[in-house]
Amino acid sequence: VPARMLAVPISEGRVLVEIAADLGVRKIRLPGGEPTVRPRIVDLVRRIGAVPGIADLSLTTNAMLLADLAHPLADAGLRRPRSTTGFPTACRSPRARWCGCASRGAR
């Protein structure tokens, strides 16, 4: 997903993802520019993750806000966060194995 899509309203972003899925796109990546600061990032992930045909939804982040957003993003359908700084991955949470919360204490 192009970075400029993050400036598109969520409802329009979902339409773009639906069109892409109809054309055979199966993987969506929400790129850097720190998408976790977007006020409705969890809603965006939930809407994109619900598009039929999208099998892989990832997000590139510097992980500064990931501790607070890990579980909501996982519950919304994010399966593959990618950190530009390397965040902890040793999580024992059944909801989000990648969240790193076990190393910081579950919230």
Major pleated sheet: 3 strands, parallel
Coarse morphology: globular
Strand line-up in the sheet with most strands: 1-2-3
Radius of gyration: 13 Å
* Unreliable stretches: 87-97, 100-107
Please give a structural write-up.
It is a single chain. With 107 residues, this protein is α/β, with parallel strands linked by helices. The protein contains 4 helices and 3 strands, in the order αβαβαβα. The protein has helices at residues 10-22, 41-49, 66-76, 101-104, and strands spanning 27-30, 56-61, 80-83. A 3-stranded parallel sheet has the order 1-2-3, with helices on one face. Strand 1, helix 2 and strand 2 (56-61) form a beta-alpha-beta unit. Helix 1 (10-22) runs parallel beside helix 2 and helix 2 (41-49) runs parallel beside helix 3 (66-76). The N and C termini lie far apart (30 Å).
Short description:
With 107 residues, this protein is α/β, with parallel strands linked by helices.
Summarize this structure as a short list of keywords or feature phrases.
disordered C terminus; 107 residues; 3-stranded parallel beta sheet; single chain; alpha/beta; 3 strands; globular
Task: Outline the fold blueprint.
Layout: H1 10-22, E1 27-30, H2 41-49, E2 56-61, H3 66-76, E3 80-83, H4 101-104
Parallel strand pairs: 1-2, 2-3
